[in-house]
Write a structure and sequence with these properties.
mainly alpha, about 10% strand, about 475 residues
């Protein structure tokens, strides 16, 4: 999509090469391209691979596209080089220049193809300020180390073993990029504003949520922007001013005390999707706490053991398997125990004085669990919308593009009628992932009414946890 004049010749001169999005039916092209990659590796060049395969329209990291990775690994197994070293790289921006285009596409609009004319029109964006660019590098992963860990010899690997290694390395790279994700003031504030599902948020409640999130981020060792580590309250105030200036939120003056600074903030309805995009920039750091919070709330008890949460956490992780990259290195039991420890440090949970592995939930901790679990509410509402579509349409009744269009229409209707609460849940990206998930789990149309009923019960159960 960037192979247009005059950019294509410039990109080629600085080392870029263009790749078809699909090799389907192009056997000769695939063989020539594989030979080209073999030669590039043989000569020792570095290759930058955008493993998601496309830009994320929702703001969060996508699942890995393994085609390019498989070609690289195949060249390695064929002897192109002695070793492959994978370096995870995280790149993000305080504000993206093409924000409007992303939000247009997430709401069902078509993507405008790149062109020289479009590039000329974009020059006006250079007059705006977009904040900082965040660039982090994770620890490298070497192919030879992976083979040694598995006790494998590169010269005696079956096709299945190569494919398994490709999936493992892809998952480990995505997890490594997640760990390098930077929490900046814009993403933290967007999460705190949206994660109650209400139109207005008081300043004390907003700061309560932000402190709860910061306590967990610090406990987990999340990457924070430099300014956040120095003085995060000042950063949050600056972000509030920034969002007010961009008309994302509106301050409501205190009519009783006459305070100049607003004590209540109203989220502008048609800007919720933009806030949701920035929230999703760092949502990977919310995932383990949110899943664990949902597991605790599902128990509906103020006293429980960590072992009681493992199965529920695994079920929630499965439900969102198309939304987030699961931790490839650690099982749910490890993640739950690590998160429970962070909850203790944040005064959400209190260890029982006598009974081992047993915890009590504090009243303030209950509020924090509601806040954390609410970060998953837009996805649950999107999945409920997808199930409504499947219940009303037979299998193969619509093509993928038509299905997404119908889901967007259903989502808008459900929002108007109050069946879903969040404008940001009307998302083409969420519906696309919902289709993938339910198709993999046997739901393809109204003929699967029994399965649709079961999944509606599951989604409804978790949605109810956040309405307490």
């Amino acid at each position: 999509n960037l192979a247009f004049w005059p950019m294509a010749p410039i990109f080629r001169r600085v080392g870029a090469f263009f790749v078809r999005r699909s090799f389907k039916g192009a056997v000769f092209y695939a063989k020539v391209f594989s030979a080209y990659i073999f030669q590039v590796l043989k000569e020792g060049f570095n290759i930058a691979v955008y493993i998601e395969g496309t830009r994320s329209r929702s703001g969060k990291l996508l699942h890995p596209q393994l085609g390019m990775l498989a070609i690289l690994m195949h060249a390695f197994f064929e002897g192109a080089c002695k070793n492959l070293i994978f370096v995870p790289v995280f790149i993000a921006y305080d504000r993206i220049p093409d924000e409007g285009a992303y939000l247009h596409e997430i709401s069902g609009g078509k993507k405008a193809p790149e062109s020289f004319r479009q590039m000329l029109k974009a020059k006006g964006m250079l007059n705006n300020r977009y904040g900082k660019v965040h660039l982090n590098f994770g620890p490298p992963l070497t192919m030879n180390d992976v083979l040694t860990d598995h006790g494998l010899d590169r010269t005696h690997l079956s096709t299945r073993q190569q494919n398994d290694l490709c999936r493992e390395i892809g998952a480990r790279m995505m997890n490594a990029i997640d760990r390098q994700t930077v929490v900046n003031p814009q993403s933290l504030l967007a999460g705190a504003l949206l994660s109650g599902g209400r139109e207005v948020v008081s300043h004390p409640e907003l700061m309560f949520r932000i402190k709860a999130a910061m306590d967990l981020f610090c406990s987990h060792g999340a990457c924070l922007s430099d300014a956040m580590t120095e003085d995060y309250p000042a950063c949050v105030n600056a972000a509030l001013y920034y969002y007010q200036g961009r008309k994302f939120i509106q301050g409501v003056d205190d009519q009783v005390t006459g305070e100049a600074s607003p004590r209540v903030y109203r989220i502008v309805e048609n800007r919720r999707n933009a806030l949701d995009y920035y929230k999703n920039n760092s949502i990977c750091h919310f995932v383990p706490p949110a899943f664990t919070a949902m597991a605790i709330l599902e128990k509906d008890a103020f006293q429980f053991s960590a072992a009681d949460l493992h199965d529920t956490y695994r079920q929630i992780e499965h439900l969102f398997s198309e939304e987030f990259n699961p931790d490839a290195s650690n099982p749910p039991a490890y993640i739950v125990r690590k998160t429970v420890k962070a909850f203790i440090d944040s005064a959400i949970l209190v260890p029982h004085p006598v009974m081992p592995d047993t915890y009590n939930l504090s009243s303030e901790g209950f509020r924090k669990l509601i806040f954390l679990s609410s970060t998953m509410q837009p996805f649950l509402e999107s999945y409920a919308t997808a199930l409504t579509y499947f219940a009303k349409n037979r299998r193969n009744h619509h093509r993928r593009s038509k299905m997404l269009k119908k889901m967007l229409a259903i989502g808008n209707r459900m929002y108007r009628q109050g069946e879903i609460r969040l404008k940001e849940s009307i998302s083409k990206a969420n519906y696309d992932n919902a289709i993938n998930f339910f198709n993999k789990n046997g739901v393809r149309g109204s003929e699967d009414d029994v399965l649709i009923g079961r999944w509606n019960a599951v989604v409804g159960k978790y949605r109810n946890l956040m309405s307490r």
